[in-house]
Design goal:
Length: 193
C-alpha cells in the first residue's frame, strides 16, 4: 500500500477534473477532511499504520466521485478506488475497507466501524468549528447553482434540521466540536447566522 503515490495521483486528478463550481466539495475540502481524520485518529489512539493508511486513503478519495456525478458520488468514488488503487499496491481487502469508509460518509451517515466513525466526524467537523458560517456559505453557493436551494431562509431551516439530527461519533469530536455545533444551532434558530 503506497499511500504517498495514491495521494499524488488523486490530487492531480482532482485538480484537473473536479468541476469549478464545487465551492464546498473542492480539493480544499478533501485536504481538510484528510487532515482532520488523521488528527482525530491520533487523539483516539489509533496507531496501527495500516489502519491509518486506509483512513488517509479513504479521506483522500471520499469525494472524488464528484468528478463524474453529483448524486451518488460515493459510489462513483468507489469505482475510482477499485480502478486505481491496485496500481498502488492496495489489496482487495484494503479496497473493500476503503469503499466502506467512503460509503459511510453518504448522508445520512451510516458508520459501522471505528474508522468509519472517524471519517464521518472528519467529513462534518466544520459543523462545530468557528469557520462554520464561512464553510456553510460555500455549500449554499454550491447547492444554489444546482437549484437544490432557493434562498437563505430555506437554507437556514435546512441547516437547523441537519444540525438537530446530526451526532458526532467519536469521543474526540464530541469533546472538541459538539459545543460549537450546539452554539451554531442556537444562533441559526435565533436568525443570527
Amino acid at each position: 500500500m503506497h499511500v504517498a503515490a495514491a495521494r499524488e495521483f488523486i490530487f492531480e486528478k482532482l485538480k484537473r477534473e473536479l468541476p469549478g463550481d464545487l465551492f464546498y466539495h473542492g480539493i480544499h475540502h478533501t485536504v481538510d477532511v484528510t487532515k482532520v481524520a488523521l488528527q482525530i485518529a491520533n487523539r483516539e489512539g489509533v496507531c496501527d499504520q495500516t489502519s491509518l493508511g486506509l483512513l488517509e486513503t479513504a479521506a483522500l478519495y471520499h469525494d472524488c466521485g464528484f468528478i463524474y456525478t453529483y448524486q451518488d458520488h460515493e459510489e462513483a468514488g468507489c469505482n475510482v478506488v477499485r480502478d486505481t488503487l491496485p496500481l498502488f499496491g492496495y489489496t482487495a481487502d484494503h479496497i473493500q475497507i476503503i469503499c466502506g469508509l467512503i460509503m459511510a460518509t453518504k448522508l445520512p451517515q451510516t458508520p459501522r466501524t471505528y474508522l468509519e466513525d472517524i471519517i464521518c466526524d472528519a467529513d462534518l467537523d466544520y459543523l462545530g468549528r468557528p469557520d462554520f458560517k464561512a464553510i456553510g456559505d460555500t455549500l449554499y453557493q454550491e447547492l444554489l447553482v444546482r437549484n437544490k436551494v432557493t434562498d437563505i431562509p430555506t437554507w437556514n431551516k435546512r441547516q437547523v434540521d441537519f444540525l438537530s439530527q446530526h451526532s458526532y461519533k467519536t469521543k474526540t469530536s464530541q469533546e472538541l466540536r459538539e459545543m460549537g455545533k450546539q452554539s451554531h444551532l442556537s444562533e441559526l434558530k435565533k436568525g443570527l447566522l
